[in-house]
Amino acid sequence: MNAVPDALPRTAGELRAAGYAPRPIAREIHDNLLAALREGRDAWPGIVGFSRTVLPQLERALLAGHDVVLLGERGQGKTRLLRTLAGLLDEWTPVIDGSELGEHPLDPITPASIRRAAELGDDLPVAWRHRSERYTEKLATPDTSVGDLIGDVDPVKVAEGRSLGDPETIHFGLVPRAHRGIVAINELPDLAERIQVALLNVMEERDIQVRGYTLRLPLDVLLVATANPEDYTNRGRIITPLKDRFGAEIRTHYPLDVESEVAVVRQEANLVAEVGEPLLEVLARFVRNLRESPVIDQRSGVSARFAVAAAETVAAAALRRAAVTGEDPAVARPVDLEAVPAVLRGKVEFEPGEEGREVEHLVHLMRRAIAETARERFAGLDLRPLSDAVADGHLVATGERIPGAEVLAALPELPVLHEVAQRAGVAADEPAGRIAAAVELALESLFLARRLAKDSDDGTTVYGE
Predict the structure, then answer these.
(1) Which residues contact 390 (CB under 8 A, 6 or more apart)?
(2) Residue 394 lies in a domain
């Protein structure tokens, strides 16, 4: 966050003279989103795979000024999408310096701020708030109280001599403190129903009620939320009046194609070693196979975080192998994919009756993903010279203690190996580890096509006839 520009007004009088009229939050987002669309700017940085589905719906909802609930299974990027909404706010907005709710200097709403504005007039001090401070996020948990969201009587203020009926005894909760900003509630169905009731007035009448009296505060907030469709539609955890107050309900989804899945992994994963595009495609297809498998509980979904964790696991396996063998740089090879099923089997839910067979299913789906990727990468390429060379006695060993140079040294010079590397996006003069990764993918595809045998023992895999 940059420092507040010195040229910005510092008093209400300067603010009025500069033309900073109060503007509702919905109008602010409306204007900034329209400007981005007209200028061709990306209003949703870091959001992948939603450009033709979710984003047009969300843009229409925001242009209409609606509160929004995003419905989707875990790991579909709902929270990430909501956080980008802050980018549609003005970079700096004026607030009354020292005000509890960040009110506009020309439009105070609390009794204390109204009194200060009347006393100081044009000399009312102005502070500036960055847009990142105007986005407030709350994870809905069963122990969330009305006081957390809306507010409660502050016993300290009562002890100081104020009466219980004095509005200034209130300690404001999260929603009022987000005045002139965005409030995001994650997993809304997890809020107890009596807590959800407290949001009704905020969303419709835009006021708050605390304890036994109503304090009329014309709050200006955009309320957005996320929910799992299972909770939302089947268990009825969001009360009907609250559902009715959301102007837009938008369904999110997992990436619709392999390219989008790979882009998400590339963007989100912290890879400690090099993982080439072919292996990322394998992992993307693996996750897509999981989402289509009947042995996986599809009601819980297979999060995009699974693909990210899988890529990070493969990179870590490659780094460990490089440390053991002294290979540099550390490059992931298909042998490193073996680490994924054992490490990540707890991140997916299996259907009842599949207990004890989890790793077996994951290995099967991983092999299917490898075969699909190899078929796509090597389509039209005759791999018979490679299989014939292995059949003639050039056995190829790979494993966590075998560097890429040894994998290549086990094979004779074959023109098809250059083609294999080229199809994998690797040039002939690149390090041996990258070329070995492409060759291993070809060898594994031949094994899966039953054109080669494979024997694994004590961390070493040997391809042979």
Answers:
(1) 396, 411, 443, 446, 452, 463, 464, 465
(2) yes
Residue 331 token pair: 């490059």
38 and 176 in a single domain? The answer is yes
- Is the N-terminal amide bond of 329 cis, ω within 30° of 0? yes
For residue 76, the domain's CATH number is 3.40.50.300
* Residue among 336, 335, 267 at smallest CA distance from 307: 267
Chosen domain end from 251, 280, 309: 251
Is residue 7 included in any domain, yes or no? Answer: no
Which neighbouring-strand residues pair with 250? 70
With bands split at pLDDT 50, 70 and 90, how would you rate the model's confidence at 234?
very low
> Distance from CA of residue 225 to its chain's centroid?
15
Closest residue by Cα to residue 12 from 85, 129, 104: 104
How many residues comprise the chain?
465
**Which amino acid is located at 429 in the chain?**
D
CB 176 within 8 A of CB 150: yes
The edge-to-edge listing of strands for the beta sheet with 460-464 is 396-399, 460-464, 453-457
Mark whether 247 and 263 lie in a shared domain: no
Quick count: other Cβ atoms within 10 Å of Cβ 454? 15
Q: Which of 251, 285, 303 is the last residue of a domain?
A: 251
My answer on whether omega of the bond before 105 falls inside 30° of 0, hence cis, is no
Q: What confidence tens digit (pLDDT) does each residue in 3-38 have?
A: 888 889 999 999 999 989 999 999 999 999 999 999
The answer to the question of residue 332 being in a domain is yes
The verdict on 457 and 334 lying in the same domain is yes
Kindly report the pTM of this predicted structure.
Answer: 0.87
**Read out DSSP for 329-390?**
S-B--GGGGGHHHHHHGGGSPBPTT-TT-HHHHHHHHHHHHHHHHHHHHTTT---HHHHHHH
Both 412 and 354 in one domain: the answer is yes
Output DSSP code: residue 413: -
389 in the same domain as 322: yes
Torsion angle, alpha carbons of 418, 420, 424, 426, to 10? -10
Measured CA to CA, the distance from residue 359 to residue 446 in angstroms comes to 23
Beta strand residue intervals within 47-103, DSSP E: 68-71, 92-96
Question: pLDDT tens, 407-447?
Answer: 999 999 999 999 999 999 999 889 999 999 999 999 999 99
User: Is 377 within 8 Å of 276 (Cβ atoms)?
Assistant: no
In the chain, the number of structural domains is: 2
Say if residue 246 is in the same domain as residue 371.
no
Same domain, residue pair 75 and 193: yes
Structural domain contains residue 1? no
**DSSP state for residue 97 in the 8-state scheme:** T
Cα distances (Å, whole numbers) of residue 389 to 183, 297, 383, 420, 433: 64, 44, 10, 15, 20
Range of the domain at 24: 12-251
Helix (H) or strand (E) holding 170: strand 170-172
- Please tell me whether residue 330 adopts helix, strand or coil conformation: coil
